[in-house]
Design a protein that fits this description.
One of its GO terms (molecular function) is protein kinase activity. This is Protein kinase domain-containing protein. InterPro entries: Kinase-like_dom_sf, Pkinase_fungal, Prot_kinase_dom, Tyr_kinase_AS. It holds the Pfam family Pkinase_fungal. The chain has 503 residues and is an alpha+beta fold. 33% of the residues lie in helices and 17% in strands. The chain has a six-stranded antiparallel β-sheet with strand order 5-6-7-8-10-9, covered by helices on one side. Strands 1, 2, 3 and 4 form a four-stranded antiparallel β-sheet that branches. The chain has a three-stranded antiparallel β-sheet with strand order 11-13-14. Helix 6 runs antiparallel to helix 12. The chain is globular, with a radius of gyration of 25 Å.
Length: 503
Protein backbone atom coordinates (compact mmCIF):
# COMPACT_ATOMS: atom_id res chain seq x y z
CA UNK A 1 0.00 0.00 0.00
CA UNK A 2 2.91 2.35 0.69
CA UNK A 3 4.16 1.72 -2.85
CA UNK A 4 0.76 2.71 -4.21
CA UNK A 5 0.82 5.89 -2.10
CA UNK A 6 4.33 6.71 -3.33
CA UNK A 7 3.18 6.49 -6.94
CA UNK A 8 0.05 8.56 -6.27
CA UNK A 9 1.95 11.35 -4.49
CA UNK A 10 5.01 11.27 -6.77
CA UNK A 11 3.82 10.28 -10.24
CA UNK A 12 0.20 11.36 -10.55
CA UNK A 13 -1.53 14.76 -10.72
CA UNK A 14 -1.13 17.32 -7.94
CA UNK A 15 -2.32 15.48 -4.85
CA UNK A 16 -2.40 16.69 -1.28
CA UNK A 17 -3.10 13.15 -0.07
CA UNK A 18 -4.21 9.72 -1.18
CA UNK A 19 -6.22 6.91 0.40
CA UNK A 20 -5.53 3.22 -0.11
CA UNK A 21 -7.02 -0.09 0.92
CA UNK A 22 -5.02 -3.24 1.63
CA UNK A 23 -6.90 -6.53 1.38
CA UNK A 24 -5.15 -9.66 2.65
CA UNK A 25 -7.49 -12.62 2.23
CA UNK A 26 -10.33 -11.55 4.54
CA UNK A 27 -8.47 -8.79 6.40
CA UNK A 28 -8.85 -5.15 5.34
CA UNK A 29 -6.85 -2.09 6.38
CA UNK A 30 -7.18 1.51 5.20
CA UNK A 31 -4.24 3.86 4.80
CA UNK A 32 -4.16 7.66 4.57
CA UNK A 33 -0.99 9.24 3.16
CA UNK A 34 -0.17 12.92 2.78
CA UNK A 35 3.01 14.98 2.54
CA UNK A 36 3.27 15.21 6.34
CA UNK A 37 2.16 11.87 7.78
CA UNK A 38 0.96 8.31 7.30
CA UNK A 39 -2.15 7.09 9.15
CA UNK A 40 -3.32 3.47 9.21
CA UNK A 41 -6.67 2.20 10.40
CA UNK A 42 -7.14 -0.78 12.65
CA UNK A 43 -7.61 -3.87 10.44
CA UNK A 44 -11.01 -5.51 10.31
CA UNK A 45 -12.41 -8.71 8.82
CA UNK A 46 -14.80 -8.89 5.89
CA UNK A 47 -16.19 -12.12 7.33
CA UNK A 48 -17.18 -10.66 10.69
CA UNK A 49 -17.88 -7.07 9.64
CA UNK A 50 -19.29 -7.18 6.13
CA UNK A 51 -21.48 -4.12 6.73
CA UNK A 52 -18.44 -2.05 7.70
CA UNK A 53 -16.67 -3.19 4.53
CA UNK A 54 -19.60 -2.27 2.27
CA UNK A 55 -20.03 1.11 3.96
CA UNK A 56 -16.34 1.80 3.44
CA UNK A 57 -16.58 1.02 -0.28
CA UNK A 58 -19.64 3.25 -0.61
CA UNK A 59 -18.00 6.24 1.07
CA UNK A 60 -14.75 5.85 -0.87
CA UNK A 61 -16.70 5.83 -4.12
CA UNK A 62 -18.59 8.99 -3.09
CA UNK A 63 -15.47 11.06 -2.38
CA UNK A 64 -15.11 14.30 -4.33
CA UNK A 65 -11.88 15.10 -6.18
CA UNK A 66 -10.56 17.27 -3.30
CA UNK A 67 -11.53 14.56 -0.81
CA UNK A 68 -9.41 12.18 -2.88
CA UNK A 69 -6.55 14.67 -2.63
CA UNK A 70 -6.62 16.03 -6.18
CA UNK A 71 -5.94 19.78 -6.35
CA UNK A 72 -7.66 20.96 -9.53
CA UNK A 73 -5.42 23.71 -10.85
CA UNK A 74 -4.63 22.40 -14.35
CA UNK A 75 -6.65 22.25 -17.54
CA UNK A 76 -5.87 18.79 -19.00
CA UNK A 77 -5.03 18.56 -22.67
CA UNK A 78 -7.86 17.61 -25.02
CA UNK A 79 -7.74 13.91 -25.83
CA UNK A 80 -9.87 12.26 -28.50
CA UNK A 81 -11.69 9.04 -27.60
CA UNK A 82 -9.43 7.10 -29.97
CA UNK A 83 -6.32 8.25 -28.08
CA UNK A 84 -7.58 7.29 -24.64
CA UNK A 85 -7.05 3.55 -25.19
CA UNK A 86 -4.11 3.29 -27.60
CA UNK A 87 -3.72 0.07 -29.57
CA UNK A 88 -0.77 -2.19 -28.94
CA UNK A 89 1.35 -2.43 -25.78
CA UNK A 90 0.62 -0.04 -22.94
CA UNK A 91 2.97 2.92 -22.78
CA UNK A 92 3.85 5.45 -20.12
CA UNK A 93 1.85 8.66 -20.40
CA UNK A 94 2.99 12.11 -19.26
CA UNK A 95 -0.15 13.53 -17.68
CA UNK A 96 1.27 17.05 -17.79
CA UNK A 97 2.46 17.27 -21.39
CA UNK A 98 0.03 19.51 -23.24
CA UNK A 99 -1.88 20.50 -20.09
CA UNK A 100 -2.45 24.22 -19.51
CA UNK A 101 -2.48 26.56 -16.54
CA UNK A 102 -3.79 30.10 -16.29
CA UNK A 103 -1.08 32.39 -14.86
CA UNK A 104 -2.87 35.70 -14.69
CA UNK A 105 -2.65 37.30 -18.11
CA UNK A 106 -0.49 34.47 -19.49
CA UNK A 107 -1.67 30.98 -20.44
CA UNK A 108 1.11 28.40 -20.23
CA UNK A 109 1.34 24.97 -21.82
CA UNK A 110 3.44 22.27 -20.17
CA UNK A 111 6.01 19.98 -21.76
CA UNK A 112 8.54 17.58 -20.29
CA UNK A 113 9.08 16.87 -16.61
CA UNK A 114 12.43 18.44 -15.66
CA UNK A 115 12.50 17.15 -12.09
CA UNK A 116 10.30 15.05 -9.85
CA UNK A 117 10.83 14.14 -6.20
CA UNK A 118 9.96 10.60 -5.18
CA UNK A 119 8.79 10.49 -1.59
CA UNK A 120 5.65 10.32 0.51
CA UNK A 121 6.53 12.71 3.32
CA UNK A 122 8.10 15.88 1.94
CA UNK A 123 7.40 18.66 -0.51
CA UNK A 124 6.58 16.42 -3.49
CA UNK A 125 8.23 18.89 -5.87
CA UNK A 126 7.71 18.66 -9.62
CA UNK A 127 9.31 21.01 -12.18
CA UNK A 128 7.90 21.23 -15.71
CA UNK A 129 8.91 22.80 -18.99
CA UNK A 130 6.46 25.60 -19.78
CA UNK A 131 5.79 27.60 -22.93
CA UNK A 132 3.42 30.47 -23.76
CA UNK A 133 0.23 29.15 -25.31
CA UNK A 134 0.86 31.21 -28.46
CA UNK A 135 4.41 29.80 -28.74
CA UNK A 136 3.83 26.13 -27.85
CA UNK A 137 7.38 25.01 -28.65
CA UNK A 138 9.22 27.92 -27.01
CA UNK A 139 10.16 26.40 -23.64
CA UNK A 140 11.05 29.71 -22.03
CA UNK A 141 9.96 28.94 -18.47
CA UNK A 142 10.22 26.41 -15.69
CA UNK A 143 7.11 25.88 -13.55
CA UNK A 144 7.56 24.42 -10.07
CA UNK A 145 4.79 22.89 -7.99
CA UNK A 146 5.37 21.72 -4.42
CA UNK A 147 3.65 21.14 -1.08
CA UNK A 148 5.84 22.93 1.51
CA UNK A 149 4.75 23.49 5.12
CA UNK A 150 2.38 26.44 5.32
CA UNK A 151 4.68 28.01 7.94
CA UNK A 152 7.67 28.16 5.61
CA UNK A 153 8.60 31.45 3.95
CA UNK A 154 7.40 31.54 0.37
CA UNK A 155 10.31 31.10 -2.03
CA UNK A 156 8.72 33.71 -4.28
CA UNK A 157 8.61 36.27 -1.45
CA UNK A 158 12.35 35.83 -0.82
CA UNK A 159 13.32 36.10 -4.49
CA UNK A 160 10.96 39.04 -5.01
CA UNK A 161 12.43 40.90 -2.05
CA UNK A 162 16.00 40.18 -3.19
CA UNK A 163 15.42 41.30 -6.78
CA UNK A 164 13.77 44.53 -5.66
CA UNK A 165 16.56 45.21 -3.18
CA UNK A 166 19.18 44.66 -5.90
CA UNK A 167 17.65 47.52 -7.91
CA UNK A 168 17.98 50.07 -5.11
CA UNK A 169 21.66 50.87 -5.71
CA UNK A 170 23.70 50.94 -8.94
CA UNK A 171 26.52 48.95 -7.32
CA UNK A 172 24.07 46.09 -6.69
CA UNK A 173 22.82 45.85 -10.27
CA UNK A 174 24.97 42.75 -10.91
CA UNK A 175 22.95 40.64 -8.46
CA UNK A 176 19.91 40.20 -10.72
CA UNK A 177 21.95 38.12 -13.18
CA UNK A 178 22.61 35.58 -10.43
CA UNK A 179 19.07 35.08 -9.10
CA UNK A 180 15.99 33.47 -10.67
CA UNK A 181 13.72 35.80 -12.64
CA UNK A 182 10.18 35.38 -11.32
CA UNK A 183 7.20 35.52 -13.66
CA UNK A 184 4.31 34.18 -11.54
CA UNK A 185 3.51 32.74 -8.12
CA UNK A 186 0.45 31.52 -6.27
CA UNK A 187 -0.36 29.58 -3.09
CA UNK A 188 -3.35 27.24 -3.23
CA UNK A 189 -4.55 26.99 0.36
CA UNK A 190 -5.75 23.61 1.61
CA UNK A 191 -6.55 24.77 5.14
CA UNK A 192 -10.08 26.12 5.46
CA UNK A 193 -11.41 23.98 2.61
CA UNK A 194 -13.62 21.38 4.27
CA UNK A 195 -13.02 18.92 1.41
CA UNK A 196 -9.33 18.68 2.36
CA UNK A 197 -8.85 16.87 5.69
CA UNK A 198 -5.50 18.36 6.78
CA UNK A 199 -7.00 20.86 9.22
CA UNK A 200 -9.05 18.15 10.94
CA UNK A 201 -6.09 15.77 11.05
CA UNK A 202 -3.90 18.43 12.64
CA UNK A 203 -6.53 19.16 15.30
CA UNK A 204 -6.85 15.44 16.09
CA UNK A 205 -3.09 14.79 16.23
CA UNK A 206 -2.37 17.94 18.24
CA UNK A 207 -4.87 16.71 20.83
CA UNK A 208 -3.94 13.04 20.96
CA UNK A 209 -0.28 13.06 19.78
CA UNK A 210 1.01 16.56 20.65
CA UNK A 211 4.66 15.57 20.16
CA UNK A 212 4.09 14.51 16.56
CA UNK A 213 3.98 18.06 15.21
CA UNK A 214 1.79 17.58 12.14
CA UNK A 215 2.53 20.19 9.44
CA UNK A 216 -0.25 21.67 7.33
CA UNK A 217 0.82 22.35 3.76
CA UNK A 218 -0.05 24.47 0.73
CA UNK A 219 0.28 23.87 -2.99
CA UNK A 220 2.87 26.44 -4.02
CA UNK A 221 3.16 27.41 -7.70
CA UNK A 222 6.15 29.32 -9.03
CA UNK A 223 7.08 30.15 -12.64
CA UNK A 224 10.48 31.57 -13.56
CA UNK A 225 12.69 31.95 -16.61
CA UNK A 226 14.24 28.64 -17.57
CA UNK A 227 17.85 28.08 -16.55
CA UNK A 228 20.42 25.48 -17.59
CA UNK A 229 21.97 22.88 -15.25
CA UNK A 230 25.47 23.31 -13.89
CA UNK A 231 26.69 20.33 -15.91
CA UNK A 232 25.77 22.07 -19.19
CA UNK A 233 29.09 23.95 -19.03
CA UNK A 234 31.93 22.67 -21.21
CA UNK A 235 34.97 24.62 -20.00
CA UNK A 236 36.67 24.25 -16.64
CA UNK A 237 37.14 27.99 -16.20
CA UNK A 238 33.40 28.48 -16.70
CA UNK A 239 32.75 26.26 -13.68
CA UNK A 240 35.21 28.28 -11.63
CA UNK A 241 33.49 31.56 -12.55
CA UNK A 242 30.01 30.13 -11.89
CA UNK A 243 31.08 29.00 -8.40
CA UNK A 244 32.58 32.46 -7.84
CA UNK A 245 29.34 34.11 -9.04
CA UNK A 246 27.08 32.05 -6.81
CA UNK A 247 29.31 32.42 -3.75
CA UNK A 248 29.09 36.22 -4.10
CA UNK A 249 25.32 36.27 -4.70
CA UNK A 250 24.81 33.98 -1.72
CA UNK A 251 26.73 36.31 0.60
CA UNK A 252 25.03 39.41 -0.80
CA UNK A 253 21.65 37.83 -0.02
CA UNK A 254 22.81 37.14 3.51
CA UNK A 255 24.16 40.65 4.09
CA UNK A 256 21.51 42.83 2.45
CA UNK A 257 18.32 40.73 2.52
CA UNK A 258 19.02 38.64 5.65
CA UNK A 259 18.35 35.46 3.64
CA UNK A 260 20.26 32.22 4.22
CA UNK A 261 19.84 29.68 1.41
CA UNK A 262 20.31 26.46 3.48
CA UNK A 263 20.20 24.02 0.54
CA UNK A 264 23.35 24.47 -1.53
CA UNK A 265 23.57 21.54 -3.96
CA UNK A 266 24.55 20.77 -7.54
CA UNK A 267 20.93 21.03 -8.66
CA UNK A 268 20.55 24.46 -7.06
CA UNK A 269 23.57 26.04 -8.75
CA UNK A 270 22.41 26.78 -12.29
CA UNK A 271 23.51 28.71 -15.34
CA UNK A 272 22.05 31.64 -17.26
CA UNK A 273 23.39 32.30 -20.78
CA UNK A 274 22.78 35.75 -22.25
CA UNK A 275 24.38 37.01 -25.49
CA UNK A 276 27.27 34.58 -25.17
CA UNK A 277 27.90 35.44 -21.52
CA UNK A 278 27.56 32.90 -18.72
CA UNK A 279 26.27 33.71 -15.25
CA UNK A 280 26.07 31.42 -12.25
CA UNK A 281 22.59 31.48 -10.66
CA UNK A 282 21.68 30.59 -7.08
CA UNK A 283 18.40 28.77 -7.63
CA UNK A 284 15.71 27.11 -5.50
CA UNK A 285 15.18 29.18 -2.35
CA UNK A 286 12.27 27.12 -1.04
CA UNK A 287 14.32 25.96 1.98
CA UNK A 288 15.82 29.41 2.56
CA UNK A 289 15.01 31.39 5.71
CA UNK A 290 15.11 34.97 6.87
CA UNK A 291 17.57 35.84 9.63
CA UNK A 292 15.27 36.92 12.45
CA UNK A 293 15.80 37.77 16.11
CA UNK A 294 14.50 34.39 17.18
CA UNK A 295 15.65 31.92 14.56
CA UNK A 296 13.77 28.63 14.67
CA UNK A 297 13.17 25.80 12.25
CA UNK A 298 10.24 26.39 9.90
CA UNK A 299 9.80 22.65 9.47
CA UNK A 300 10.35 19.73 11.80
CA UNK A 301 12.58 18.07 9.19
CA UNK A 302 16.27 18.87 8.66
CA UNK A 303 16.77 20.97 5.57
CA UNK A 304 19.22 20.30 2.79
CA UNK A 305 20.35 17.72 0.25
CA UNK A 306 22.18 14.97 2.15
CA UNK A 307 25.36 14.56 0.01
CA UNK A 308 26.03 18.30 0.32
CA UNK A 309 24.86 19.03 3.87
CA UNK A 310 27.33 20.13 6.55
CA UNK A 311 28.39 17.23 8.75
CA UNK A 312 27.09 18.93 11.93
CA UNK A 313 23.59 19.24 10.49
CA UNK A 314 23.49 15.58 9.49
CA UNK A 315 24.11 14.26 12.99
CA UNK A 316 20.68 13.82 14.64
CA UNK A 317 22.32 14.05 18.08
CA UNK A 318 23.50 17.59 17.35
CA UNK A 319 21.11 20.41 18.16
CA UNK A 320 22.64 23.22 16.13
CA UNK A 321 21.29 26.19 14.22
CA UNK A 322 21.94 26.40 10.50
CA UNK A 323 24.75 28.97 10.18
CA UNK A 324 26.32 30.78 7.25
CA UNK A 325 29.46 28.62 7.45
CA UNK A 326 27.32 25.50 7.00
CA UNK A 327 26.35 26.79 3.56
CA UNK A 328 30.04 27.38 2.80
CA UNK A 329 30.70 23.76 3.74
CA UNK A 330 27.97 22.72 1.30
CA UNK A 331 29.66 24.78 -1.44
CA UNK A 332 32.85 22.83 -0.75
CA UNK A 333 31.06 19.48 -1.12
CA UNK A 334 29.46 20.59 -4.40
CA UNK A 335 32.84 21.50 -5.90
CA UNK A 336 34.41 18.32 -4.52
CA UNK A 337 31.70 16.03 -5.91
CA UNK A 338 31.71 17.75 -9.30
CA UNK A 339 35.48 17.43 -9.67
CA UNK A 340 35.62 13.81 -8.51
CA UNK A 341 32.43 12.39 -10.05
CA UNK A 342 31.93 14.17 -13.40
CA UNK A 343 33.63 14.78 -16.73
CA UNK A 344 33.46 17.99 -18.75
CA UNK A 345 30.83 16.56 -21.07
CA UNK A 346 28.46 16.45 -18.10
CA UNK A 347 28.66 12.68 -17.72
CA UNK A 348 28.42 11.58 -14.12
CA UNK A 349 30.37 8.60 -12.86
CA UNK A 350 28.28 6.02 -10.98
CA UNK A 351 29.71 2.60 -10.12
CA UNK A 352 32.78 2.93 -7.94
CA UNK A 353 32.65 6.73 -7.95
CA UNK A 354 34.22 8.75 -5.18
CA UNK A 355 31.97 9.63 -2.25
CA UNK A 356 29.22 7.21 -3.32
CA UNK A 357 28.27 6.57 0.31
CA UNK A 358 27.34 10.24 0.68
CA UNK A 359 24.52 9.56 -1.78
CA UNK A 360 23.40 6.21 -0.38
CA UNK A 361 24.21 6.19 3.34
CA UNK A 362 22.06 7.27 6.27
CA UNK A 363 22.42 10.75 7.73
CA UNK A 364 24.46 9.35 10.64
CA UNK A 365 26.86 7.50 8.31
CA UNK A 366 27.35 10.49 6.00
CA UNK A 367 27.97 12.77 9.00
CA UNK A 368 30.64 10.40 10.32
CA UNK A 369 32.33 10.06 6.91
CA UNK A 370 32.46 13.82 6.39
CA UNK A 371 33.67 14.49 9.92
CA UNK A 372 36.48 11.97 9.52
CA UNK A 373 37.45 13.43 6.13
CA UNK A 374 37.73 16.89 7.68
CA UNK A 375 39.70 15.83 10.75
CA UNK A 376 41.92 13.12 9.23
CA UNK A 377 45.65 13.74 9.76
CA UNK A 378 46.37 12.33 6.30
CA UNK A 379 47.02 14.83 3.47
CA UNK A 380 43.81 15.64 1.64
CA UNK A 381 44.23 14.27 -1.90
CA UNK A 382 40.79 13.81 -3.49
CA UNK A 383 40.54 11.73 -6.70
CA UNK A 384 39.95 14.69 -9.03
CA UNK A 385 38.95 13.73 -12.58
CA UNK A 386 41.42 14.81 -15.32
CA UNK A 387 38.89 17.26 -16.81
CA UNK A 388 38.89 19.23 -13.54
CA UNK A 389 42.61 19.25 -12.79
CA UNK A 390 42.53 23.04 -12.38
CA UNK A 391 40.63 22.56 -9.11
CA UNK A 392 43.16 20.08 -7.72
CA UNK A 393 45.23 22.67 -5.79
CA UNK A 394 42.11 24.59 -4.70
CA UNK A 395 40.28 21.75 -2.96
CA UNK A 396 42.99 21.20 -0.27
CA UNK A 397 42.99 24.95 0.41
CA UNK A 398 39.25 24.96 1.09
CA UNK A 399 39.44 21.67 3.00
CA UNK A 400 42.05 23.17 5.33
CA UNK A 401 39.62 25.95 6.33
CA UNK A 402 37.09 23.47 7.69
CA UNK A 403 39.77 21.23 9.20
CA UNK A 404 41.22 24.12 11.18
CA UNK A 405 37.75 25.18 12.34
CA UNK A 406 36.95 21.65 13.52
CA UNK A 407 40.26 21.39 15.38
CA UNK A 408 39.59 24.73 17.04
CA UNK A 409 36.14 23.51 18.08
CA UNK A 410 37.57 20.32 19.60
CA UNK A 411 40.28 22.24 21.45
CA UNK A 412 37.72 24.74 22.71
CA UNK A 413 35.57 21.92 24.08
CA UNK A 414 38.54 20.21 25.74
CA UNK A 415 40.03 23.37 27.25
CA UNK A 416 36.79 25.22 27.99
CA UNK A 417 37.89 28.21 25.91
CA UNK A 418 35.53 30.44 23.86
CA UNK A 419 34.57 29.33 20.36
CA UNK A 420 32.92 31.46 17.66
CA UNK A 421 30.46 29.14 15.87
CA UNK A 422 29.75 31.66 13.09
CA UNK A 423 33.23 31.43 11.59
CA UNK A 424 34.92 28.55 13.43
CA UNK A 425 37.10 31.06 15.31
CA UNK A 426 37.76 32.99 12.11
CA UNK A 427 38.86 29.96 10.08
CA UNK A 428 35.82 29.62 7.77
CA UNK A 429 34.97 32.94 6.16
CA UNK A 430 33.62 34.19 2.86
CA UNK A 431 36.85 36.08 2.20
CA UNK A 432 39.06 33.00 2.65
CA UNK A 433 36.79 30.83 0.53
CA UNK A 434 36.69 33.45 -2.23
CA UNK A 435 40.48 33.89 -2.09
CA UNK A 436 40.92 30.14 -2.59
CA UNK A 437 38.61 30.16 -5.62
CA UNK A 438 40.42 33.14 -7.13
CA UNK A 439 43.63 31.09 -7.34
CA UNK A 440 42.06 28.94 -10.07
CA UNK A 441 44.66 28.39 -12.81
CA UNK A 442 45.96 31.97 -12.44
CA UNK A 443 42.80 33.25 -14.12
CA UNK A 444 41.27 36.62 -13.32
CA UNK A 445 37.85 35.57 -12.12
CA UNK A 446 35.27 38.35 -11.93
CA UNK A 447 34.68 39.55 -8.37
CA UNK A 448 31.86 42.03 -7.78
CA UNK A 449 31.42 41.69 -4.02
CA UNK A 450 34.85 41.79 -2.36
CA UNK A 451 33.82 43.41 0.94
CA UNK A 452 30.98 41.67 2.82
CA UNK A 453 29.32 42.87 6.00
CA UNK A 454 30.54 41.50 9.35
CA UNK A 455 29.02 38.31 10.76
CA UNK A 456 26.56 37.57 12.19
CA UNK A 457 24.00 39.25 9.96
CA UNK A 458 21.66 41.76 11.53
CA UNK A 459 18.18 40.24 11.88
CA UNK A 460 15.55 41.48 9.48
CA UNK A 461 13.10 44.00 10.89
CA UNK A 462 9.56 42.67 11.38
CA UNK A 463 8.13 45.76 9.65
CA UNK A 464 10.17 44.85 6.58
CA UNK A 465 8.62 41.38 6.53
CA UNK A 466 5.13 42.84 6.86
CA UNK A 467 5.69 45.25 3.97
CA UNK A 468 7.13 42.46 1.81
CA UNK A 469 4.06 40.35 2.53
CA UNK A 470 1.75 43.20 1.51
CA UNK A 471 3.60 43.57 -1.78
CA UNK A 472 3.51 39.82 -2.34
CA UNK A 473 -0.23 39.63 -1.78
CA UNK A 474 -0.74 42.44 -4.29
CA UNK A 475 1.27 40.56 -6.95
CA UNK A 476 0.15 36.99 -6.31
CA UNK A 477 -1.70 35.39 -9.20
CA UNK A 478 -0.46 38.03 -11.67
CA UNK A 479 1.96 37.59 -14.57
CA UNK A 480 5.01 39.82 -14.06
CA UNK A 481 7.00 41.74 -16.64
CA UNK A 482 10.41 43.36 -16.12
CA UNK A 483 8.90 46.64 -14.94
CA UNK A 484 7.08 44.91 -12.08
CA UNK A 485 10.23 44.91 -9.98
CA UNK A 486 10.66 48.67 -10.38
CA UNK A 487 7.08 49.77 -9.76
CA UNK A 488 6.81 51.69 -6.50
CA UNK A 489 10.22 50.45 -5.42
CA UNK A 490 11.23 51.24 -1.85
CA UNK A 491 14.32 50.39 0.18
CA UNK A 492 14.03 47.02 1.88
CA UNK A 493 16.08 44.97 4.31
CA UNK A 494 19.24 46.61 5.59
CA UNK A 495 19.01 49.50 3.09
CA UNK A 496 15.50 50.33 4.29
CA UNK A 497 16.51 50.32 7.94
CA UNK A 498 19.57 52.51 7.40
CA UNK A 499 17.45 55.06 5.57
CA UNK A 500 15.02 55.13 8.50
CA UNK A 501 17.87 55.79 10.93
CA UNK A 502 19.06 58.81 8.91
CA UNK A 503 15.56 60.23 8.97
Amino acid sequence: MAGYALEMLSSALFRSHTIGMLVDTQEVQLGYYDHSCILLSAPFSIDTDETHFLETLYHLRALSLPERGIVSRLKPKDVSPDDRVPPGPKRTTNLYSGAEIDCGSQLLRFGDILYRARSIVGRGTIVLDAAPDDQPKAWLYAAKFSFPPATRHSEASLIWSALRTSKQRPEWSWVGNHLPNLKFWEDVELTGNEDFPQERIKAFLDEHCPDFGYEERVLRILVQDKLEPLTSLREEVQYAQVFCDVLQAHRWLYDHCQILHRDISMNNIMVRKVDGKIFGVLNDLDLASRITKEMSATSKHRTGTRPFMAYELLDPKNVVSHLYRHDLESFFYVILCLCCRYDLDGTGMTAGSAYNEWFTGSAEIVSTLKGWMLISPQPFEPPVRPDFSGFKPILPLIHSLFRKALLQQINSTDLGTPFDPETGNGQVTYEKFLDALKTFDNRNLTVRYPSPSPLPAQPVDESVLEEDQREMRAKTGKWLDEDSYLAGIKPSGKARKSKARKA
